[in-house]
Amino acid sequence: MMGRFFCQAVLFALLPCIAGFAQETNSVSVVESPRSTIHDPQSTAEIGEIVVSATKFGEEAWKSGSSISVVPEGTLILERPLQTIEPLRGEPGVTVNNGSGALGGVSQVSIRGLPFSRTLVEVDGLRLNRPIDGIANFADLPPLLMGNIELLRGPQSSLYGSEAEGGVISFTTPKGQGEPTGGTSFEAGNFGTRRERIFSSGKEEYFDWNVEGARVDSDNERNNNNFRQDAGAMHLGFDISETARFDVVGRWTDYTAGAPNGIQGFGANDPDDRLIRGMQLISPSFTLAAFEEWESKLTLGYIGVGQRFETPPSAFVNHSESWQIDWQNTFRPVEWNTLVAGVQERCERATTSESSGIAAFDRNTDSAYVSDSVRLAEWWGMTLSARFDDNEQFHDAWTYRASQVFKCPETETRLHMSFGTAFRAPTISELQPLFGPFSGENPNLVPETTEGYDVGVTQPLLGGDLEFDSTYFYNNIVNLIAADSAFVFQNISEARSEGVENSIKWKASKELQVRASATLTATTSKDARFSGNDLARIPRETASVGVTWLPVEGVESSPVWNFNGEAFDNAANTQKLSAFNRLDWYASCQATPWLKVFARCENILGYRDQQTAFFPGLGRTYAGGVEFKY
Asked: What is the C-alpha separation between 493 and 355, in angstroms, rounded?
């Protein structure tokens, strides 16, 4: 079956070549740094929405043919979220879940209705998904030094490997630019919430820097639910020459949170359980662009996530680490063709300890990937990509993907489509007895595999100021890993997701912009025990409307409405999660060149939503503060 789908994908990608492969083309628009010949996606914002995640090189988003959206850096600056997950609400095909309903809880994202651990989250090219359980917890990633956030939907293992079944969320730490600047900010709100920040960025000669540190404290709302977090982020860079550059990116966070469990059920309202958790990331890289047609980048990386769960008088500790080396080469032999090829090695380690002793397991993955992007004129583009992953604990995995876009010059209508495969390797805890006699491990597990496609239409109007997009998607997972009735992990299940993503962007004027989205998702389990049931915690309907208004110079205001439809908390669909509406409002005022005043009010309607059963969200929250900048 895989061979049949591969042939279909190749034929699908090559059809336009028959009609017009010999036509003249325009080059992909990439602006170069005035002091360097190295291609820099950050410097291309003025020519359109530039993305990197779809093809691993910077180009305008619509040219890739992939379903991709961007949360701009300006949104993060205005909203000043306490949690990185918040600005992702309302994006097409995205479901946000804050498990505990409060600061410090496990926060995850699902794309296109697939289970939450089937979304790959990358931070500067390093996986936030923990090898121990496959979970990417956004609580480990405070909103510091956030550039544009890219959300790439659909199976993406052909460039990213395991976990990228639903899609990829990519975070990049921006480098420092412009004149040296720095400052500090302070804010306070209800529930005893406070945040202090200090930051500095700039460029001097050949050295640039961007650094930020923050402290967050909150009592949250329930007893034994207080939260404290210290975090920092940095991007240091040095232009060695016009063709060579060295960068170092780093992040760390350390937080403590009370863990009262749910409001009912086992262990409800626990008075003394605590969670202590931390994350460290460091990634040096060297980029060389010796020729206009070739750029090479070597990246080393380490990311570690550890936690200690204290349930007096005992404690449980686990720690995940990942070391990675990636060598990527980008070739531009002609104006209309860009080829990306790379190799990667990743070493993973998971450790647990409790009263029964210490358990530690390691595994290595060697990978190679290639992507070829062809852009003929302004009317057609195609990308083919493939990847091979060799993991010492399971069978080799081959994945591939094809995407293309057609553009009608007369109407500017764009038809985009893609077909791809993906896989998810069994996590270390699913394979090994990390958690004692109740681990449920199964060393005979094989990877899940996913096949999916999407077809969509984008229609710009009013000279591009108004844009509509509607995309149909379909995904099918086989060998889905799930626990059986004896709580042992098995390849026992299969699941399907399909739906429609709709979005509107309207730039009414320089002072007024409107964005809206609505997603209908049908997720169906094919597990014999729950056949036909919805997958847990995935709503069938989500919608969002946001408005950005600049009434006078220096003043910005943005109301945002989000809707989540009904969902179920379990695979048996016996525990319903109610639909809820959420209305937020954000505002800022640049009072002087060195002083900014800002405020926000979230969940104005006061809905006590439960995204996980018996864990109610916070009620109405509000905060205000000031920022001093020199």
From this structure: 34
Q: For tokens 């005893």, what's the residue?
A: 192
Secondary structure string (H, E, C) spanning 382-447:
EEEEEEEEEECCCCCEEEEEEEEEEECCCCCCEEEEEEEEEEECCCHHHHCCCCHHHCCCCCCCCC
Count CA atoms within 13 Å of residue 43 on its CB side.
15
Residue 469 pairs with which residues in a beta bridge? 458, 503
d(C-alpha 236, C-alpha 242), whole Å: 17
DSSP for 590-628 reads EEETTEEEEEEEE-TT-----SBTTBPPP-SEEEEEEEE
Kindly list the distances between the CA atom of residue 1 and the CA atoms of 5, 6, 8, 419, 451, in Å, as whole numbers in the listed order.
6, 9, 11, 15, 11
* Cβ atoms of 216 and 229 closer than 8 Å: yes
Number of H helices, E strands in the chain: 4, 33
Can you say how many angstroms the Cα of residue 347 is from the centroid of all Cα atoms in its chain? 22
Full-model pTM: 0.90
**Residue 223 carries which side chain, given as an amino acid letter?**
N
Tokens representing 406? Answer: 């057609």
Determine the 3-state secondary structure of 71 from DSSP.
strand
Question: DSSP assignment of 96-144, as one string?
Answer: EEETTSSTTS-EEEEETT--GGGEEEEETTEE-S-TTT----GGGS-SS
For the chain, the distance separating the N- and C-terminal CA atoms, rounded to the nearest angstrom, is: 62
Torsion of CA 136, 422, 11, 153, to 10 degrees: -20
Q: What is the pLDDT of residues 284-337, one digit of tens each?
A: 999 999 888 999 999 999 999 999 988 877 778 889 999 999 999 999 999 999
Q: Is pLDDT of 21 > 70?
A: no
Q: Quick one: which of 311, 304, 306, 343 has its CA closest to 327?
A: 343
Positive or negative torsion for Cα 55, 59, 65, 69 = positive
Mean pLDDT of 571-592: 95
The secondary structure of residue 86, as a DSSP letter, is G
Question: What is the Cα–Cα distance from 202 to 221, expressed in whole angstroms?
Answer: 39
Q: What pLDDT was estimated at residue 35?
A: 32
CA 185 to CA 626: how far, in whole Å?
6
CA–CA distance, 205 with 401 (Å, rounded to integer): 42
> How far, in Å, CA of 107 to CA of 325, rounded?
28
CB 85 within 8 A of CB 98: yes
d(CA 533, CA 175): 46
Sequence-separated (6 or more) residues with CB below 8 Å from residue 486:
none
pLDDT of residue 438: 57
Do 250 and 216 meet the contact criterion of CB atoms below 8 Å apart? Answer: no
CA angle 76–82–84, rounded 5-degree value: 60
Q: What is the dihedral of CA 160, 343, 130, 276, to 10 degrees?
A: -120
Dist. CA 365–CA 392, nearest whole Å: 7
